[in-house]
Amino acid sequence: MESTKAVLALACCAGFAHAGIASSVILDDFDSDPNDDLGGVGTYSAIILNNPFNQGSDFSLDTLLSTGADTGSLIFNSGIGVEQQGTIIYNDEGAGLDLDAAGLGVQGFEMDFVMIDQDFYAQIDLFTYDDMGNTIGSASRVIQIGAGMDVTADWSLEDFSVADAFDASDIDELRLTFNVRNNPTASLDFIATEFRAVVPPPGSAALLGLGGLLVARRGRD
Prior knowledge:
Elements: E1 3-4, H1 6-13, E2 23-28, E3 43-50, E4 58-66, E5 71-77, E6 83-90, H2 101-104, E7 108-116, E8 120-129, E9 135-145, E10 148-156, E11 161-164, E12 173-178, E13 189-199
Antiparallel strand pairs: 1-11, 2-13, 3-6, 4-5, 5-13, 6-12, 7-10, 7-13, 8-9, 8-12, 9-11
């Protein structure tokens, strides 16, 4: 049975209510060494939903692109009239992330863009696996991201819709989808530089004893 705000309730039990001013932890900065980021290696895919003028499009990393203080970017480049959808999946290459968002008091997720040429919709899906690696629960949130320069998009965890046996203390997969199928923007171009989890600041109640780690790995039998 689907419910809303269930993730927030779990986070509050873990100390989110005492978090104070939010901080963040980098999940992916789209650089040349993605294994250094706590989200692990992302799996990229793209779907062309409509291409009336037979134009080229691209959804990929540019690890050498410098945008000032940051090197490495996510590029979404659509030809004229092209409705393209891009997806990144983080799941430790199928092993599962074992991300304890509840224990960390995660408040949501953010992504920085240096340039977006048109408004579009983006979705985050979170999944919990069983011991066999099958999905048993999920949570999702779609937001509209506006055009502009130096834009930060925000998915607040309290607004996620939750279904089935989703467990915020055991998130095994995080999926990012850009230009979602039901509301595609034609000819969309953007450059993103960083994807983060929003967490309480170091020293707050929710982080005591956790050592600032985002991914808590448990052994699988």
